[in-house]
Give the backbone structure.
Amino acid sequence: MVTHFIFIADDYRRGKRISWQTTSDLTTFMDDIANVSDKLNAKKFISYATHTIDTERNSWDSVVAADPFFEDVSHYTDVVSFISDLELGLKVTANDIAELISEKVEQQTGQLVPEMALMKLVYYVYSEALTKYQIKLFDNNFVAFDHGPVDRDVWDRIKYSENYEVEPVFTKNETSPVQAKLLASGKYQIIQKVIDDILSVPSTTSKYDLMRKTHQHGTPWDIAYKNGQNTRITDELIRQHHAVESL
């Protein structure tokens, strides 16, 4: 009889559960468990679980045969790749912020956020976090469109992509997929505060009011746009000039 010690987690990037295991027939069994636990804890991963199961063989197929819970799990034999993909899956994106804003506005008002307003709100959340808390929430790709600052990834998703969702494994029913991911990333508290502060300002979901603010003289968008449509709006521009468009 072989004991399998399994680490399992949500890979939010691909919408899958992923796993890595060590088995009791290995002389490194206990060291493997301790080493991988230390690596995950060092990276402050909180959204993972461990399972043990006994089978007749040390193969992953024997685990799947013994318990259908593991049927749709993507299994890794290389622990480095397992941890790397887990880390990539927890990386906050502009689209995560857009999804959370949409959820909050719909919960508060029962209405959807207009696309143009949503793209500007993502910009405001990023800019407020950067200037007030010195936190870079995600790798942005803000550019100066005719109607204001837009993150290219959010634009592409809204205009061209399907809306993929990940159903978390280890969260309560009332926690949405994007909330689960952001909680697991460790950034949910600051993101929630910034979004709540922004949405508490009257008319922040109005695309016209937001456009008037970002189009003022001396804003990051104004300075970038003078160099041509679709010019990058850099972090340095935001740090130096976001106060002009502050809500």
Q: What stands out?
A: Residues 115-133 form the longest helix (19 residues). The beta strands are 2-11, 16-23, 48-55, 73-76, 142-145, 148-151.
